[in-house]
Structures are given as structure tokens and as C-alpha cells.
């Protein structure tokens, strides 16, 4: 029997982990794909390349970037997130399967057409939401034009809502100005709350 998850998070930075923590606390157990050297960066995102972070609240003497992301990862798991260390080049919603297209009625996302790469079988899997939270640069090629982007290549959002109902974006992938860990964490919180509210009404 196939398992359909209410929420899938793609990313491993502050936005992704904050969203996972908030969703977990709301009894929505997200699956988080943290990537394996996605874009040449270790799981944890750009902060893993920073030796000392002095502007993240709660650490008056600063904290190593790797340590901060390790703590966020542990907190995500403690709140019920399942973390999978696998890089997503196309959104994978099932084992050995890739996303072909998002399916909906023009206003509401209600499925994902996926192809099994082993058997070649294509089918529509019912989903109730999809959550994007990815890296420092707007690495959005895997979306294949399925979401509206800004002229600069970032995911276009209204707060955290994307051009597809039920799909939310957070973090640096939709922030061309600030690109700071604390801002990404805040946007992850907002996206999680928007996603939770959306799930309650759909």
C-alpha cells in the first residue's frame, strides 16, 4: 500500500527546519528531504560553510554553522519530522518515482503525476500540499516551470503562497534581499502556519 504524506519539505536550512518543527508541533509529521551535497553544499545549507555565526539569537558567544544546523535538525526530528538524506533534482513523492506534473483544477492542487523510473509506469498520486524550502541561491531548475518565478529567478510568493494553491515557499529561494538565517527561519514558520491552515480547509 502506498503512503501519501500531507507535507513534504525540500531543504535543510533554517526555513526547512523551522517549518518542520512548527508542523510537527501541530501533529503534522512532514517528510523532509535534506539533500546530499545538493548544489555542492552539505545538508544544512549555506550555514554549514560558516565557521562562526554571531547574529543568530540565543548564542551570545556565537555558534558554529554546522553545530547550529545539527541542533535544528535534531529539533526537527524530536518534533516528528522524518528526514531523508537524498538530493531532489525532480520532486520525488514515492520511491523510484519522479514528478511529471502537478495536477489540479486551476485553483486547487490535488495531485501529482509521477513516473516510476524502474517500470516506466505513470500515475496520478493524490496530494494535499507541497512545500518548497531550498538553499541560498534560487536553485529552482527542478520545478520545470511549474511555479511562477520573479524576473530574477526566485519563486514568486504572496506571503508564503506560490502561484499553485497548496504549494508554499520559504527561505532564500524566495528572498532576493535579506538572505539571512533568522529571516529564513521566520519565513519557514510563516509557511508552516499557512500550510497547516490550508490543510485544515482542504
Automatic annotation (TrEMBL):
<dbReference type="InterPro" id="IPR050097">
    <property type="entry name" value="Ferredoxin-NADP_redctase_2"/>
</dbReference>
<dbReference type="InterPro" id="IPR036188">
    <property type="entry name" value="FAD/NAD-bd_sf"/>
</dbReference>
<dbReference type="Pfam" id="PF07992">
    <property type="entry name" value="Pyr_redox_2"/>
</dbReference>
<protein>
    <submittedName>
        <fullName>Thioredoxin reductase, putative</fullName>
    </submittedName>
</protein>
<dbReference type="InterPro" id="IPR023753">
    <property type="entry name" value="FAD/NAD-binding_dom"/>
</dbReference>
<keyword id="KW-0560">Oxidoreductase</keyword>
<feature type="domain" description="FAD/NAD(P)-binding">
    <location>
        <begin position="6"/>
        <end position="74"/>
    </location>
</feature>
<feature type="domain" description="FAD/NAD(P)-binding">
    <location>
        <begin position="90"/>
        <end position="188"/>
    </location>
</feature>
<dbReference type="GO" id="GO:0016491">
    <property type="term" value="F:oxidoreductase activity"/>
</dbReference>
<dbReference type="GO" id="GO:0097237">
    <property type="term" value="P:cellular response to toxic substance"/>
</dbReference>
<comment type="similarity">
    <text>Belongs to the class-II pyridine nucleotide-disulfide oxidoreductase family.</text>
</comment>
<keyword id="KW-0285">Flavoprotein</keyword>
